[in-house]
């Protein structure tokens, strides 16, 4: 069995030194990984968490209306991108839906203080 010794590596993300412990090295070799980690444990954790959160918002300038907006992905060409409003418009147009019945993307959270319409509770007298 190979004898592992703690190694000091430099994190790719924060540039800080971190210790690649013998235990981790053993783990890596058992998993068949040949490359040492490129990030310190902190950044590895951050990276994992970032990947878990699916939404990566990118700020864009809409090529149609010029409005600044956000899209939940990384556009291939940042100059060839539509804001969500225009995107839905275009999509509706492509579908041949000439009318403006496209619903905008629903907000993730509804305001709690929305007044509810209470039906009138008066007895109805016929005649
Ligand atoms: Zn780091
Ligand atoms: Zn737009």
TrEMBL record:
Residues 40-52 have a biased composition (Basic and acidic residues). It comes from the Bacteria. Residues 5-51 form the Probable zinc-binding domain. Residues 55-90 form the CxxC-x17-CxxC domain. Residues 30-53, 96-127 are annotated as: Disordered. InterPro entries: CxxC-x17-CxxC_dom, Zn-bnd_dom_prob. This is Zinc-binding protein. The lineage of its organism: Bacteria, Candidatus Berkelbacteria.
């Amino acid at each position: 069995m190979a004898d592992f010794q703690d190694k000091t590596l430099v994190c790719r993300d924060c540039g800080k030194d971190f210790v690649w412990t013998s235990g981790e090295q053993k783990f890596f070799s058992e998993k068949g990984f040949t490359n040492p980690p490129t990030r310190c444990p902190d950044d590895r954790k951050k990276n994992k968490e970032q990947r878990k959160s699916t939404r990566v918002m990118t700020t864009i300038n809409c090529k149609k209306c010029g409005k600044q907006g956000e899209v939940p992905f990384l556009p291939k060409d940042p100059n060839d991108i539509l804001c969500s409003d225009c995107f839905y418009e275009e999509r509706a147009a492509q579908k041949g839906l000439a009318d403006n019945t496209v619903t905008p993307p629903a907000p993730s959270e509804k305001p709690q203080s929305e007044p509810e319409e209470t039906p009138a509770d008066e007895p109805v007298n016929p005649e």
